[in-house]
Amino acid sequence: MTGTPVPIGVVRFPGTNCDQDVFDAVGSVPGTRPVWLWHKDRDLAGVRAIVLAGGFAYGDYLRAGAIARFSPIMEEVIRFAEAGRPVLGICNGFQILTEAGLLPGALMRNDRLTFISRPQWLRIESTATPFTRHYRSGERVRFPVAHGEGNYIAEPEVLDRLEAEGRVVFRYVDAAGATTKESNPNGSARAIAGIADATGNILGLMPHPDRAMDALVGSDDGVRVFRGLLEAAA
Amino acid sequence: MTTALAERPVTEGDVAAHGLTPSEYERIVELLGREPGLTELGVFSLMWSEHCGYKYSRARLAELPTEGPQVLQGPGENAGAVDVGDGLAVVFKMESHNHPSAVEPYQGAATGVGGILRDVFTMGARPIALLDSLRFGDLDDPHVRYLFRNVVRGVGDYGNCVGVPTVGGEVVFDDAYRGNPLVNAMCVGILRHEELTGASAGDPGNAVYVLGSATGRDGIHGASLLASTELGDDTVESRPTVQVGDPFTEKLLLEATLELIARDVVSGIQDMGAAGLTSSSSEMASRAGAGIEIDVTRVPRREPGMTAYEVLLSESQERMLISADAVNEPELMEVAARWDLPCTRVGRVTDDGVWRIVEGDSVVCEIPVRALTEEVPRYVREVDPPAYVAAVQAAMPDPAELAAIDPWAALETLLAAPTIASKRWVWEQYDHTVRASTVAAPGADAAIVRIRGTDRGLALVVDGNGRWVYCDPRRGGALAVAEAARNLAAVGARPLAITDCLNFGNPEKDGVYWQFVEAIRGIAEACHALDTPVVSGNVSFYNESSRGAIHPTPTIGMVGVVDLEHAILPGRGGPGDLVLLAGAEGTHLGASSLLREILGRTAGLPPEVDLQAERRLGDAVRELAGADLVRSAHDLSDGGLSVAAAELLFAHPAGIGLDLELPSGADPVKTLFGEDGARILLVVAPEREAVVTRRLSDHGLPVRIAGRLTGTPVFRVPGLGERPRPDLEALWEGTIPRIMQRTESSR
Amino acid sequence: MTRVEVFIQLKPGLLDPQGETLAHALESLGHEGVTELRVGKWITFRLDEPDRTAAEREVREMCERLLANPVIERFQYRLDGDGP
Amino acid sequence: MTRVEVFIQLKPGLLDPQGETLAHALESLGHEGVTELRVGKWITFRLDEPDRTAAEREVREMCERLLANPVIERFQYRLDGDGP
Ligand SMILES: Nc1ncnc2c1ncn2[C@@H]1O[C@H](COP(=O)(O)OP(=O)(O)O)[C@@H](O)[C@H]1O
Ligand SMILES: [Mg+2]
Q1: Nearest CA residue ID for atom 14, ligand 1
Q2: If pLDDT is split at 50, 70 and 90, which confidence band does A90 have?
Q3: Distance of alpha carbon B217 from the chain centroid
Q4: Which helix (H) or strand (E) is B548 found in, with range?
Q5: Distance (Å, rounded) from C-alpha A196 to C-alpha A170?
Q6: Complex confidence, ipTM
Q7: Which of A13, A39, A61 would best serve as a mutation to test chain D binding (most D beta carbons within 10 A)?
Q8: D contacts of C65 (beta carbons < 8 Å)
């Protein structure tokens, strides 16, 4: 890619703790310029795409993402998203997107009732989003999961619509690609790990592509998510 | 101004109630040149407690080596610092939170993690890793299960929320810890040399601020009463002082503190931990050789009606004491406000060397700073070994009893022993991948986290074997350091330095004091031999319950560096690869896991320590790793050769098996379960066997082919038979999850 | 000063793993007769709004906007001592 | 069938980080009048114990042994519609 690098915003809420990981992941893609966005600001500094990073915004007190969703910056993020611009929510970012109503459903406490931190196999269910266009449909990838409230739930009709419209983007599977009780880390309905909005420009997922950027730390399967993000922003 | 003397005069009863001896009281009067006020008495009782003042341990700790070219900051600050090249330094420390965890396991463990994080980031370092070293009673006890589950939840929830990966640790279960679990947490941070900050009050005239949470009645007398007395049945009484952790506020404090230090706004900053405002203010003044004056009415409170005494002694969490030039106040307040943290000016640094506490316009305390920090009474005594030692060492089972042991049954029992079984149940509750830098995760002999901006990683481990220290404190102390170094060697890393957490019983008892003195001797010898100075640490005495003292348990946190390109990672290599035993054949069963788990005995002498052999082994393995001659490795520790071989196998893909060969004519029980040190299993390609063997011999190390990896999931010992790998692995992986499904009891 | 209590619970029909685990634990402690156990939130505070109707309107708004997530939870509240 | 409600809260004096953070959030949403906010648990279930006194004894025991953490929490309970 040539020309001036594309500015991509990384939002920092009080308690966000994957902000640096995401900032580095975004910055590692040639042609991007990661830009910090502060929760108290209302100015998106001209960014062309936005990532809500993982962590524990406001300590996840009350409900994960419930308080962060009302930060000043979120009004702008919502406007930005509704204008069809790319927004990616990872882990706590996904929780915030559902609390903000940008994605349907909710993320409840893991059915095992404990935090779960492990490498996780995922199946790419849709390549129709900008974030997944560089994957093969049905491809298996490995991202770490690390969360206490990742149990995705929605009304049956909503789930059916998500499936029908190809908006289930990532599903938890085992090494062989099968969905089993053990391969589902948190009890999510239909083993859903990540979903998109109707336009495909808003994506939320619990696993961490930002922690799968280098084989040295176990996997570089996440790189293509950020490459897709850049292209969608450019 | 009215003075402290306006309080009612101190009685003999008060002195005793504050845990001070009559002679200590006389010393106080001498230092003050008058009788203390009641509040002053409370202050002395805290600052002169073992926990804050190290009155029994200080003199002995002096025997530990603390210097070396790599050391940038030794003991004395909030944490130690060691050079790791490229202008970077690693800052680390380990601390105990045993008694709070016994009283309230979740909050006790969580606030323990919070405290050690603050010790590291007040030095200006960004925390990049946590480790935890845990001891509990027998898991068959429902209350022990309750403690275990909640301590693990507490460690996890706090570190996970702040965003620091917990990358390693250890858990040991032994009845010796039933009444008094151990919760030791280690934090590791990184900074550029020039960012290294101290906790000194700086120049007289500086203003003093409290940053962070409001002050409540949390943990009043926590440090002195909880950490400097035994846990008896009256422990219930200390319960109202339980501190509740707030990891969210901690995360804000972390970011604000690092920003203040980076902007050079503060001259000194210290966590308000044990003994809260009292110890933090007097220690900061002491480091600057200055005085300090604080007005307690300015300290923000969470509760109405708190007395000066309560404000001074409160151990409310997530608070920092800051000393800064008043001209920086606007910038200080601006940073605090951006992170939504209250910041209040509460006093100033003076030049009269006096620790002065005022409440509005009346003086509550007026004590020479040195009296609180330097004049702490020091107790040294020479004591004889307690009677139990000779008895335990002599109590080895007779050879017939050992010969009668069935090797397979023993291996299965060991793999299913909670102390040896996989701790996945624990570390899957810890976020060990946040920061996207974890190269070797829990499950490896040592954790590896990359040092951003370099091609090197930090190798981290905590180790300690209380049973060995109990049977022979000096040997056990040295063995703990040796095992930590061996764990680092097994991933190809070079040890740099250690931190220690010395968990013992009541030092006023001769037997415990002797264990302490001997263990320090052993640790010191090993640190000298392995060139790993002690840069920080913590002493935790009075770990006793109605059932007596715990096993003396020094835990060693060791930090090393490894060239990431040549790091040895678990699970590499495959069928046909040879498994070499680097080091001598096993023979030693004294104080072993075998005796403990199979015969239910803690008996005999632990294995001898050959520190030169340990050193040569480390050098040799690092050399082999550097030449990429090793595919994977695992050190021998609990359970000896057989358990190490099984664990090495379990790190490989499910389809792999292992053949383990015994030397002809060897005693199978001794060879399979002996726990002699200085040994590591190496997985090497067959064509490398000659060169690897030669290189090891060049280092004067014995080596033999101990087996090979196979393509069928079977664990075979020619001559003794075989077991399906899945059966053994199910025991090792399944034990803790299975036990933790049983019911628990909070009492 | 109005004393406010807010009660939040997962919608009926939604699985409540925490509730189930607690129920099992109670059973294994010998409390066989326990059924339909649900674990919810109990939030209490004081509200500086003397006017009853205004206070009620404000509390309802707090619940709808922040305290409860309509997708998975339902709420009740009580002002001063009145029944839920 | 007795309908039981258990209310659990941190003991007074203990820090309630969740409560403090939530109170700030409500304030920044324009609800200035909120004070003394605490977040606790609300546990509901049915108990198959017709005898009132027996039921009450059993519920108290459940609270003391399992539902509440006596070290840091205090509890109240209500059987059927009676006041807390
Ligand atoms: N409490 C814990 N927290 C995190 N990791 C742990 C904990 N306990 C054990 N582990 C991990 O499990 C593995 C085995 O631990 P251990 O048996 O103590 O190793 P070793 O015997 O080689 O010292 C190590 O990688 C260790 O870091
Ligand atoms: Mg090891």
Answers
A1: B443
A2: very high
A3: 28
A4: strand B548-549
A5: 10
A6: 0.95
A7: A61
A8: 29
Residue D81: which pLDDT band, with cuts at 50, 70 and 90? low
User: Mean pLDDT per segment of 10 residues, for chain B of length 747 residues?
Assistant: 60 88 93 93 89 88 96 94 97 96 96 96 97 98 97 98 98 96 98 91 92 87 52 44 91 97 94 89 93 96 89 91 96 97 96 94 94 91 94 92 95 98 98 98 97 96 98 98 98 98 96 97 98 97 93 98 97 97 95 96 95 98 98 98 98 97 94 97 98 98 98 97 98 98 86
Nearest ligand 1 atom, CA B462: 23
* Tokens coding B500: 């220690």
Give yes or no: B634 in active site. Answer: no
CB contact under 8 A, C42 and D46: no
> Ligand 1, residues B157, B170, B184, B415: which to mutate, most atoms within 8 A of Cβ?
B170
Q: Tell me whether residue B51 is one of the annotated catalytic residues.
A: yes
Contact (Cβ atoms closer than 8 angstroms) between residue D84 and residue D11:
no
Neighbours, chain B (3 or more CB pairs < 8 A): A, C, D
CB A192 within 8 A of CB A125: no
Asked which of A53-62, B169-178, D46-55 is least confident by mean pLDDT, the reply is D46-55
N-to-C CA span, chain A: 10
Q: Which of B246, B251, B564 lies at the smallest CB-CB distance from A216? A: B564
Residue A67 with chain C: CB contacts under 8 Å: 66
Element housing A98 (H / E): helix A92-99
Q: Please tell me the residue having the least CA distance from ligand 1 atom 6.
A: B169
Between vectors from CA B616 to CA B613 and to CA B618, what angle results, nearest 5°?
110
DSSP B211: E
The shortest CB-CB distance from A109 to any of C17, C66, C69 is to: C17
Residue B506 to residues B19, B50, B511: CA-CA distances in angstroms?
14, 10, 9
Model confidence over C51-79: pLDDT tens digits?
999 999 999 999 999 999 999 999 999 99
d(CA B644, CA B378): 44
Q: Which of these is catalytic: B18, B51, B588, B699?
A: B51
Task: Write the CB contacts of B60 (distance below 8 Å, at least 6 apart in sequence).
Answer: B380, B516, B517, B520
d(C-alpha D26, C-alpha A8), whole Å: 31
pLDDT at B683: 98
Amino acid at B95: E
Pocket of ligand 1 (CB under 6 A): B 132, 134, 166, 168-171, 423, 426-427, 430, 442-445, 463, 487, 635, 637-638
Chain C contact for D28 (CB, 8 A cutoff): no
The amino acid present at B634, given as its one-letter code, is H
Question: Binning pLDDT at 50, 70 and 90, where does residue A2 land?
Answer: low
- Please tell me the predicted confidence (pLDDT) of residue D42: 98
Chain D closest-CA separation from residue B246 CA (Å): 6
Q: Which residue's CA is the closest to the ligand 1 atom numbered 8?
A: B170
Mean pLDDT across the stretch A26-48?
A: 96
Q: At what angle do helices B105-121 and B142-162 cross, to 10 degrees?
A: 30
- Judged by CB atoms closer than 8 Å, whether chains meet at D71 and B104 is answered as yes
What pLDDT, on the 0 to 100 scale, is given for residue B744? Answer: 87
DSSP A140-206: EEEEEEEES--EEE--HHHHHHHHHTT-EEEEEE-TTS---TTT-SS--GGGEEEEE-TTS-EEEES
Give the residue on A whose Cα is nearest the Cα of D16: A61
Sheet containing B291-295: order of strands: B268-271, B319-324, B207-212, B343-350, B291-295, B354-359, B362-368
- Distance CA(A112)–CA(B90), nearest Å, equals 36
Spell out the residues 6+ positions from residue C43 whose beta carbon is closer than 8 angstroms to its own. Answer: C5, C6, C8, C67, D22, D37, D38, D39, D40
To probe the interface with B, which of D10, D14, D15 has the most B CB atoms within 10 Å?
Answer: D15
